[in-house]
Amino acid sequence: EQCDYGHGTGHGVGYFLNVHQGPQKIAYNTSGLKCNNMKENMITSNEPGLYRPGKWGIRIENLVVHRRVKQPKETEFGQYLCFEQLTLCPIDTQLIERSMLSDEEAAWLNDYHALVREKLAPHTEGAAKEWLERNTQPI
After folding, report:
1. How far apart are CA 16 and CA 49, in angstroms?
2. DSSP assignment, residue 12?
3. Integer angstrom CA distances of residue 26 from 45, 48, 90, 132
4. What is the pTM of this model?
5. Which of 19, 28, 46, 72 is deepest in the core (most CB within 10 A)?
6. What is the 3-state secondary structure (H, E, C) of 95-121?
């Protein structure tokens, strides 16, 4: 929480095989230009991480699409889009110290794993299905 992890949180994903293709990005150095605004149906990476030089680093990287919700939250800054998960792969919970997560963070992870299980389980069987079930259990 509140750590500067030395890179942006997300960027556009392009069809020209560019790794960082805009115009949108989630980063402290994003320009305030209207052309950089996120729009509905844009695909963006979501890659929070933390790096300790000379020690270790960790990053989780998923893809999300910006969707309009039925009842968008209205704030003093306007209405906002929500992120819908595109990447559906379990997050390795062996890397997580549960006592360091808030209840809200743990609920997000459990909801994400429930979604992964719901979407992928019908397409798996045998050892793959057992692995999926084992690796998407609530923490």
Report:
1. 26
2. B
3. 9, 10, 23, 31
4. 0.75
5. 46
6. HCCHHHCCHHHHHHHHHHHHHHHHHHH
